TrEMBL record:
Cross-referenced PROSITE patterns: MFS, SUGAR_TRANSPORT_1
SUPFAM superfamilies reported for this sequence: MFS general substrate transporter (SSF103473)
Organism: Paractinoplanes pyxinae
Main location class: membrane
The name this protein goes by in its record: MFS transporter
Superkingdom of origin organism: Bacteria
Keywords per UniProt: Membrane, Transmembrane, Transmembrane helix
Subcellular location field: Cell membrane
Membrane topology: Multi-pass membrane protein
The organism's taxonomic lineage, starting at the top: Bacteria, Bacillati, Actinomycetota, Actinomycetes, Micromonosporales
């Protein structure tokens, strides 16, 4: 009996309206848990520990943490595909990953030096990416294809709006441990509370293939020659996430260096920038996700989003005042919103098979986590040579590449 037949005999849950709402809400909680250290508190903690080396240390911490995100995501997807727990295939990884991730965030909050910050962020990335891979795999498990565009748009919307909620909570607290601990705890509790009632798919038979080194290595790859549409969709996701992450990874230091914002003011300014970005995203994402399902088209929305995001990041790069920078954030948010309205549905539509959905979505998630590894490595050198405008203009170029990449996808209109 092949793997497809085995999974067909798994206990499949009825696709319910609750799951349609719960999955985006869970991703909202996940984002609220992740964003405080990623966007604000790690940068401020590193300035407390070593103000002169903060930029280089931030690149090191984010880069190593993103490496663990890179490794964890497809492994978590593969393992959740094979899980035979009576609690389901996905939920055990969501819950255990959340606990491990929050433990890492607690380590960061009390870290006495840079290596401990690095350790804490690595643990946080491992745990939260186990949760993420299993959460994303709930989409094909729980949502029929005709509704995935709408649900995917709300998932992406929730992840990005979560940044607003997270930075709002962060700026309510003075610099210190509570800036990380309270917002992230809120996010973890929300994520687990809405996932708990979902009736997860239960696997009742052993996987056909053994979990050996070859199988684990296979968690990181797919054959782009055999599945070219997935390959081009993967590249498109990589390019657009590079554009997005370029705008957020060094935002705190950009505000401090270019606009004279103090460390105490930085959390509030980051919140304002993220809020304006989210307004643009909110105006676009729900409408285009619905319209994508209605028209049965994905590619035109990705092309439009790439060009808008490129314009937004360019405006940020050349901004000389806070209002112009916020305008760029609004435009970027609209472009990112147009992209995230359809990109997850685009990926789901070109998956090779349902039996490896968790693994393949984990590989697709590498296109989201890989820029988080590469940008911190490249950013210090780019900033030293060309300043923050050079960093942002470089990110804008990837938006154009995203528009070109999606045109090569054939199976999806």
């Amino acid at each position: 009996m092949d793997e497809q037949s085995v999974l067909a005999r798994a206990e499949a849950p009825a696709r319910s309206r609750y799951a349609v709402a719960a999955i985006p809400l869970a991703l909202l909680g996940w984002s609220i848990a992740l964003v405080p250290p990623l966007a604000v508190t790690i940068a401020l903690r590193l300035r407390e520990l070593d103000v002169d080396g903060a930029a280089a240390n931030l690149g090191l911490v984010l880069g190593v943490g993103a490496f663990f995100s890179f490794v964890t995501n497809p492994l978590a997807g593969r393992l959740s595909d094979r899980t035979m727990s009576r609690f389901g295939m996905r939920k055990p990884w969501i819950f255990s990953g959340a606990v491990i991730g929050y433990a890492g965030i607690a380590v960061i909050a009390y870290a006495p030096n840079v290596p401990v910050v690095l350790l804490g962020w690595s643990v946080a990335q491992i745990g939260l990416n186990f949760s993420l891979a299993a959460l994303i795999a709930l989409l094909p498990d729980q949502v029929e294809p005709g509704r995935r565009g709408r649900v995917a748009s709300f998932i992406s919307l929730a992840q990005n709006v979560g940044g607003v909620g997270a930075t709002f909570l962060v700026q309510l607290f003075p610099i210190g441990p509570l800036q990380s601990l309270v917002p992230s705890l809120f996010g973890v509790v929300l994520m687990l509370a809405v996932v708990a009632p979902i009736r997860d798919k239960v696997r009742t038979e052993q996987p056909v293939d053994r979990l050996d080194v070859k199988t684990l290595f296979g968690s990181f790859v797919f054959n782009p020659r055999r599945y070219p549409d997935l390959g081009w969709a993967w590249l498109t996701r990589f390019f657009l996430n590079t554009t997005q992450f370029t705008a957020t990874s060094y935002l705190t230091y950009f505000l401090i260096a270019e606009f004279g914002v103090s460390d105490d003011e930085a959390p509030t300014m980051v919140f304002q920038a993220v809020l304006v970005n989210a307004v643009g995203l909110l105006l676009v994402t729900p409408v285009l996700g619905w319209l994508s399902d209605k028209l049965g088209r994905r590619k035109p929305f990705v092309i439009l989003s790439s060009l808008i995001a490129t314009v937004g990041l360019t405006v940020i790069a050349i901004s000389s005042t806070i209002p112009v920078m916020l305008l760029g954030q609004f435009i970027l948010g609209a472009g990112v919103g147009a992209f995230f309205a359809v990109e997850l549905a685009l990926i789901a539509d070109v998956l090779p098979s349902e039996q490896d959905a968790g693994k393949d979505l984990g590989v697709a998630n590498l296109a989201q986590s890989l820029p988080q590894s590469l940008i911190p490595i490249a950013a210090p050198g780019v900033i030293a040579a060309f300043g923050y405008p050079g960093l942002f203009l470089g990110g804008a170029l990837f938006g154009i590449l995203g528009a070109l990449g999606v045109t090569r996808v054939r199976r999806v209109r």
